[in-house]
Structure formats: C-alpha cells, structure tokens
Specification:
The protein is built from no helices and eleven strands. The protein is mainly beta. The strands form two sheets. Strands 2, 4, 5, 6, 9, 10 and 11 form a seven-stranded mixed beta sheet that branches. A four-stranded antiparallel beta sheet has the order 1-3-8-7, with no helix packed on it.
Length: 127
C-alpha cells in the first residue's frame, strides 16, 4: 500500500515557476514508477510526465515538454514536478500516481496502469 500526498500548488501569474512535490509513504517507493497527471474543469485527466524507478528515464506530455521537469529522490520518498514558464492553460488539479507494472517509458502515459493516486493539488495560473 502506498499513500501519496501532493503539495506546492497555488495561485501564480503567467510566466513564473512552481514546484510540486509528492510525498509517498511506505518502504518500497523505489519499486514504483511515478507519474504526474492534471485535470482541468470539464476536461479529461491528462498525462503530464512520468519517471522510472531509478529516475533515469522520463517522459513528458507534448503540452509541457521543454517547460516541466520531473525528478525524484528515493531517499526522501518524494517525486517532484518543476514547472517553468507557466501558462493559464496549465491551470488544473495536479495528481501524482504510482505504478509497479510497467518498466518501459512509453507506457507511463496510460492512466489505467497506475495503482495509487494522491488527492491532488490545485494550480491556478492567471494571465
């Protein structure tokens, strides 16, 4: 069982940076690949980024590629999402998720493979 708690969201202006954190409980954090997703009102949940168990492989959604960076610290049981050059269209609830099934980066985008989800943190970007 893994419990995930996101933090770091808030209301910011366009163009600034924000870093989200996701703290995981349990002793087996390093055995899970992690993902970040977001959901805006009236829209489907969207893949933002994913990171392998060791942190050596990452994948990003097209809308955030080049602006967002995902990283993890297995010693701290934490995964991060560094968001730069934020835009109003980045406004959403951001969720982190953990999965133990897939070992190839191309499957990180699949929402259905994730076993555990956090409660989400709101990010609002004003223009």
């Amino acid at each position: 069982q893994v419990q995930l708690v996101e933090s770091g969201g808030g209301l910011v202006q366009a163009g600034v940076s924000l870093r989200l954190s996701c703290a995981a409980s349990g002793r087996t954090f390093s055995s899970y690949a992690m993902g970040w997703f977001r959901q805006a009102p009236g829209k489907e949940r969207e893949f933002v980024g994913g990171i392998s168990r060791s942190g050596g492989m990452t994948d990003y959604g097209d809308s955030v590629k080049g602006r967002f960076t995902i990283s993890r610290d297995n010693a701290k049981n934490t995964v991060y999402l560094q968001m730069n050059s934020l835009k109003p269209e980045d406004t959403a609830v951001y969720y982190c998720a953990a999965q133990s099934t897939c070992y190839i980066v191309t499957c990180y985008r699949a929402i259905g493979i994730y076993d555990y989800w956090g409660q989400g943190t709101q990010v609002t970007v004003s223009s």
